[in-house]
Design a protein that fits this description.
48% of the residues lie in helices and 23% in strands. It has three helices and four strands; from the N terminus they run H-E-E-E-E-H-H.
Length: 92
Amino acid sequence: MTPFKIATMTALVLLCAAPANARDSRMAGNVTECSRYSNGCYTAPVRQGRFGPQMRLKGGTWIDCKGSCKDTLREETVDFWETQRERGSDRR
């Protein structure tokens, strides 16, 4: 490969990566939500994912926000079992 081709490919990679980095920095932040059942509060980092905002759960897994990141955070962390019980009673 010629130095020109290497430089061109490097420039293209950097140009393609720049918008993604800018988008991530705009969406970066945290969301905090407290339990409706006195189970405490939890704060999670938020980033822009491929299809919308995502947040990181306690174990390190990134999940998509379903509508509101605050509601998703509460349902998937501090009120997880209560949410499962509520959804289970809706199926009967």
